[in-house]
Structures are given as structure tokens and as C-alpha cells.
Design brief:
The complex is a heterodimer. Chain A is built from no helices and eleven strands. Chain A is mainly beta. In chain A, strands 2, 4, 5, 6, 9, 10 and 11 form a seven-stranded mixed sheet that branches. Chain B has no helices and twelve strands. In chain B, a hairpin with a 2-residue loop joins strand 7 and strand 8. Classes of the chains: A mainly beta, B mainly beta. Chains A and B meet through strand 4, strand 5, strand 9 and strand 10 of A and strand 5, strand 6, strand 10 and strand 11 of B.
Chain lengths: ~120, ~120
């Protein structure tokens, strides 16, 4: 079974450019999460979807960051006017559901390493 | 707000011995879920084991087991018969279970484990 797929694996952008990151969750998983990992902040939650609907975006920076899930097979994280402080590994995770009995276990993709010069 | 604390920055052990890692958490919820993940040198984040707060028995999966001490808000990870490939960074994480905002994972800063021959 394929795990969570993220593309690209590496992305280098210039300051002020736009970056779009893609995530394909595990087939049959209804919940999709985005996290960011940096040396300073560690692993931080950004946002999540359930059945394609946005549920909680409390971790998203208010400006320049947006996420969508147009269909059940992919989600995108878009960063407009990228800044050097946006450099991080962006991780996507998915889970079967949000209930107990293990359905809520999140499985992570390999991440996209974003470098903003 | 929920909080997860891992105080051990790094641990070094000899192959085939046992390593124990600490994690304490803070939550106001009566129902919550605790997870341990491993991040390999390649950056891959792998789910290892979980403990649901309402379960009294410590979880065990393969050579991973948990030491759940609810009164102390503590969830330690024990790895027995360590192998070189267990060298990684281990993250403790928590999910609160009572509302939609609780579905995100809150992570500790990680403990780096080195298993040496």
C-alpha cells in the first residue's frame, strides 16, 4: 500500500515567490493534516481537513498561507510571497478518521523541504 | 492548552540493551490519546505505538512498550533489545479528544537515540 505522497520533495524559491506543496493522502483516509517542522519550533500543527472540509486552521499563519482540499485524493498548501522564515519541512499526514480505536492514528508523508532564499 | 515535554535531549545505548525515554504531558481533557513516533535519518516519521487514556493496561507492540502513569501525566517509551537501526529521534505526541480542535497532534521536542555496537 502506498503511504502518504508529497511532492515536490525539495523546493527552492526566491523571496517573494509563491510555493505550492502537494499531498496525496492514503486511499480511504478521510482526515488530512498539515504540519511544519523547523529546528527552532519543532513540529507544529498548521491545519486539517475532514472529508475535504476545512476543520481547524488555528496553526496557519494568518497571512500568505492557505490550504485547500479540492478532492479526496489531494490537498495543497500554498504560501504566497515566501519569506526566509518560511523555510521548513512541511509534512502532510492522514488518518482513517477522527474517532478512537486507532482510526485517528496519523501517518506521515516524507515531507517537502522548502528553502526560501 | 495542551503541552508535551521531553526532557532528555539525547541518549546513547549499547546494542541489544534497553532504552527508556520520558515524556510528560499537560491537558485539561479527561479523554486524550498519546502517541510515539520515530523520525529516521532520512526524515521519515513513523508511527510506533499509542496509548488511549482510558486504557489501564500499558500498550506493547513488538519491542516497543509504554509505561503509562496517568496520575503523573507520564508516558514513557521503552525499547528492548535495541538494534542499530533503532537510532533515530523519538517524538511523543498527544491528541485531546473532546472537540474538533483537539484532533491535531501536539509534539514534544524529541529525544535523539544512538544505538552503538
Amino acid at each position: 500500500n502506498a503511504g502518504v505522497i508529497q511532492t515536490p520533495r525539495h523546493k527552492v524559491t526566491g523571496k517573494g515567490q509563491e510555493a505550492t506543496l502537494w499531498c496525496e493522502p492514503i486511499s480511504g483516509h478521510s482526515a488530512v493534516f498539515w504540519y511544519r517542522q523547523t529546528i527552532v519550533q519543532g513540529l507544529e500543527f498548521l491545519t486539517y481537513f475532514r472529508n475535504q472540509a476545512p476543520i481547524d486552521d488555528s496553526g496557519m499563519p494568518k497571512e500568505r498561507f492557505s490550504a485547500q482540499m479540492p478532492n479526496q485524493s489531494h490537498s495543497t498548501l500554498k504560501i504566497q510571497s515566501t519569506q526566509p522564515q518560511d523555510s521548513a519541512v512541511y509534512l502532510c499526514a492522514s488518518s482513517v478518521g477522527l474517532g478512537g480505536r486507532g482510526q485517528d492514528t496519523q501517518y506521515f508523508g516524507p515531507g517537502t523541504r522548502l528553502l526560501v532564499l | 492548552a495542551q503541552k508535551v515535554t521531553q526532557t532528555q535531549t539525547s541518549i546513547s545505548v549499547v546494542e541489544k540493551t534497553t532504552v527508556t525515554m520520558d515524556c510528560v504531558y499537560e491537558t485539561r481533557d479527561s479523554s486524550y490519546f498519546l502517541f510515539w513516533y520515530k523520525q529516521t535519518a532520512s526524515g521519515e516519521i513513523v508511527f510506533l505505538i499509542r496509548q488511549d487514556s482510558y486504557k489501564k493496561e500499558n500498550a506493547t507492540v513488538g519491542h516497543y512498550s509504554l509505561n503509562f502513569q496517568k496520575p503523573k501525566s507520564s508516558i514513557g517509551l521503552i525499547i528492548t533489545a535495541t538494534q542499530i537501526e533503532d537510532s533515530a529521534v523519538y517524538f511523543c505526541a498527544m491528541r485531546e479528544g473532546t472537540n474538533s480542535a483537539g484532533n491535531k497532534l501536539t509534539f514534544g521536542i524529541g529525544t535523539r537515540v544512538l544505538v552503538r555496537p
